[in-house]
UniProtKB/TrEMBL annotation:
Lineage: Eukaryota, Fungi, Dikarya, Ascomycota, Saccharomycotina
One Gene Ontology term of the molecular function aspect: zinc ion binding
Protein name, entry field: WGS project CCBQ000000000 data, contig 00102
Database matches in SMART domains: FYVE, ZnF_Rad18
Keywords, ordered alphabetically: DNA damage, DNA repair, Metal-binding, Zinc, Zinc-finger
Cited InterPro entries: Rab4/Rab5_effector, Rad18_UBZ4, Rbsn_Rab-bd, Rbsn_Rab-bd_sf, Znf_C2H2_type, Znf_FYVE, Znf_FYVE-rel, Znf_FYVE_PHD
Stretches assigned to the FYVE-type domain: 97-163, 241-323
Gene Ontology terms: cellular component: bounding membrane of organelle
SUPFAM superfamilies in the record: FYVE/PHD zinc finger, Rabenosyn-5 Rab-binding domain-like
GO biological process assignments: DNA repair
Amino acid sequence: MTEGDGRLLGSESPINENVGHSQVVTCPVCGKEVKSLRKLNAHLDNVHGFNDKHASDVESSRESSVVGLNTHPQDTTLGSNNKGKIKMKTAHWKKPVDGKSVCFECGHKLNARNGLINCRKCGELFCLNHCKNAIKLNESGEYDTTTNGIWFKCCNTCYTSREGYNDFGLSKDVTSAFKRIRNTKNEDGELISLQLENRLLRLINGIIKINVRHQYSILSALRIKPEISNLERSIVEWKDDQVALKCDICSQPFGLLMRKHHCRLCGLVVCDRETSRCSSEIPVLNLMSAAPDLAFENVESLKAISQLSADIRACSSCLRYVFAHRKLQFNKTLQLPEILKQYENLHNLEMIVVNLLPRFKKALETLHDNHPSEKNAVHNLAHLRRKLLQNLALYDKLSKRIVQLEVKSEAENKVQRSIALHASAFIEEKMLPLKKIPEVLNPTTDKVEVTKSSDLLFNNLTIAEVKKYREELMVLREQKYLVENMLNSAAKERRFEEAISLKSNLLEIDMNINDLETKLGDEGF
Ligand SMILES: [Zn+2]
Ligand SMILES: [Zn+2]
Ligand SMILES: [Zn+2]
Ligand SMILES: [Zn+2]
Ligand SMILES: [Zn+2]
């Protein structure tokens, strides 16, 4: 960051607007305040030697001020005041030699016409054109920007080689100062948001209390409203709206269409225009869910959380203070890697299964205790079992998807492996009690169904059953034919081990065919 100086016109001072037509301007070189542009001009001529015609030292420009614009003695500057106090050493000044001295920069012979001047810093001789810079020097001729230094003439080399010089003016690093200011502002901001948070918490806790107190009263609606109004007034002192002429946020004047509202958190008078949204009424529940980290009290005493129907009016500035960093943190927590996001879903499924299993086991026990034909118990058990199996299937699917995810780091890789291990162990453990059930469950449910739909019977079978058994029989006969062929070729090629297992398969198929044929009786084909 730089602070310009340079030879420009003085900048207008923003502080003094009430001086009238005579503007106060500051000198771009030394920062001194001057009452008018005219006086600045004179100041530049006198103190900084900007008067080209009379380019000379401060001492000689005092004489030129008679010729120049300014003749008021009170305009003599600090520099010229100090002038009397300090005596510049002149030992290093080069002595001019008549007719032989040349300008150290341009080499022109120096005479009365083009000037003959020593640079106050290096002491070399120059023509007037090459020694017209102003620089602050102290008694020993050293560059000095403190009050010890006063303005002197110097050559271009001395001017440009001074500390902090750059082509666009003096450079001054104000970054650290800026940082300091910024930090204190940030700290202020944190303090403000803490204070507003406290008010919001007090307000919401108060509203909850009022609701709890009246929740069983018939007149609750009549009582809650005025109590909340009183509470709102106690949180922060409200600014007098009689004297408020314009919105404290958007500065628009109030009128018939611009109604006045008080922010319940800062007490300022603000508008509620749609376009500027300087303030808005927000349901308490929304505020609570947007700041779940605040310590809300007595929520559990409410009959139902939805009964909190009150709104709180807050201005946009307060809302930003309280909720801006919350939204930020909310966003931060959302930046989870894909694998952890998926794991959350997996974990949820796991919890469902873990919660369902004890219920299932209990239902199974009651079924064993009572008579197994209890319809409701069987139904319940079947329902729970189906639910468990569905969730486990989903769990299995999701865990496989996680295992196939592309991982981005070694850490994620580790997480992936442990999820895979855990998931397979979990499925095996939880599937075990479910596997035993079919024997208990299926015969009973089948029986129920069979007796229900016994309108048309063939050998005590329904039409559907006949159809089903016939299909099964067909498949088995096809299988038998295939296995017989395989057995023959295995025997031919002396693959005896294969032949033995094929033989036992064939026996099994024959048994099943016999079974089905007896069931179907005359309906077989
Ligand atoms: Zn100045
Ligand atoms: Zn020269
Ligand atoms: Zn010099
Ligand atoms: Zn407004
Ligand atoms: Zn406010």
